């Protein structure tokens, strides 16, 4: 009998660490523990530099007195059209958001398309029109691009890779390693909407009510928050892996603990119901128009007030606090008075969500 | 009977223009006429801005007195390992080259991976190691990235999208619209090596001798050329669609004609033989370590001399001249004294070559 683990079945969440993996599994794209392991074991040792080592969603490059933010993401969501958005809207907004999460003003976007032979030209056109509309709203320009076509059955309709370039105009240092005990943890609104919207469409599920993706560009919300105070230490958009995964990443990078109160976290009733049916925890479900912020205690109230005045932050709330105790652990008080550990997601409950 | 054209068969080169296409065909990714039509009919009308309208392989952005070059490309080559390179080496070199082709010094690269479930982790590791080696040679840093995983059968092992950022340090204006009558057309070496190397591996063909990809980073060659003279008007790396397609693009954008002499164009004997067997013209076959340059007549000799002193330009030659006559047409004198029109490639003789 071989000592080697058997290759995982398609879609299987594989509990073994990457060191034991001879093959890539869906969980390596989850944004959770397996993705972290892939980054730490395959990418980081080979691209060892201070920019990548920050493990933020963007690199900050100092050039000629200019502080540039640079970020890239591939989008492989299926289906490509879903309630509240499509892959084009997702790609542009996602890249704008990754720039905004270090306080940058988004300026330029590059877009590379991998099309599957047989794709309807009309579908491509609709996606491109979405991209244009979203880019215009945010005042970013798509300045360069590329198109490749792969044989039928070697792709899946459309994959889009967007790369963004933005300028950090304020003297802020926003990074996952800057959370400090006492920081207030703010959340800009309800969680789980995007993931459940894509799932409902993909699996053709009928829930109690319609669920729409929250897909939105957060740059204007971040601009409003920074006007209220520059004392914002971390910003993250909780996409793949959800709020729980992002908070764990910040806790690990900043060597701090976190204490949350589950009762404070807003979840739409329809999303809550859909999650219960599917056995998912909304804290691990992807969002595409939400952010979490670690804000210095003296600035938190002003920042929260400004968030609530913004259309994308109307339901913003304080969800907890950064603590010195239990570094790298995120604890959550449950509604019935218990405490649970919110761990990083291991595998991939919702593959290809973005 | 329907007026609509039947959907193309897989791999079929479809002569109808995009306006008649309801579906994407492989030829839309060829870099030839169908790619141009897709760009002109789907992308340009929706992303109407002066950067994209230049139709160069990179955007030049002026920021804070800095002239930045910004370029993106997806790589979908199959097989991912081929004689002389692999998809990782191709991705980094391709992006370095697109930056170099406007005279920029490559600085930073972002890389986004789309992995197919089931990919051998060892193959990914080898590709990443290639990327690192090539980046180090050229002094560029991979500063940010992304990884997605798609289900088995929805991708093809590895797709890589690399986006580059470089700085144009010299006061040069190098663009496809700057060719002028009298410019000398220089070519840095033999043509067709990359395309035939990939084909031979993919189709398991045995030719008279081994054919290796010419995959290489051209930034140091361009730096040497610009040291010889800044009077270089256009630079292009003839990848998809080959030398013929690139020259046609420059002729169209600059509203000039070109006259080439086939006898001056170096092609390796093995490549020539392989092309003859497959019925391909090396002028339409992809290169990944070659460039064509339109150089002011008074500078041509000095630039060519410097090219020949560089290891990547040892076989550099003058292949023809830009003329005022027959604008937008590229004519070539054949060895037997005739003249043929070199048109843009229509479809896709060699799909997924980069």
CATH class of the largest domain in chain A: Alpha Beta
Q: Number of helical runs of chain A?
A: 9
Give me the CATH superfamily of the largest domain in chain A: PurM-like C-terminal domain
Strand portion of chain A? 15-25%
What's the quick description here?
Chain A is an alpha+beta fold and 354 residues long. Chain A has helices at 33-43, 50-53, 87-100, 121-138, 193-202, 219-228, 242-254, 269-278, 297-309; strands at 59-63, 66-75, 81-82, 85-86, 105-116, 141-150, 158-167, 184-187, 232-236, 257-261, 292-295, 317-323, 330-333, 339-341. The interface between A and B is large, with 87 and 87 residues.
Question: Which structural traits does this protein have?
Answer:
alpha+beta; 60s Ribosomal Protein L30, Chain: A; Phosphoribosyl-aminoimidazole Synthetase, Chain A, domain 2; five-stranded mixed β-sheet; 14 strands; 29% helix; 23% strand; disordered N terminus
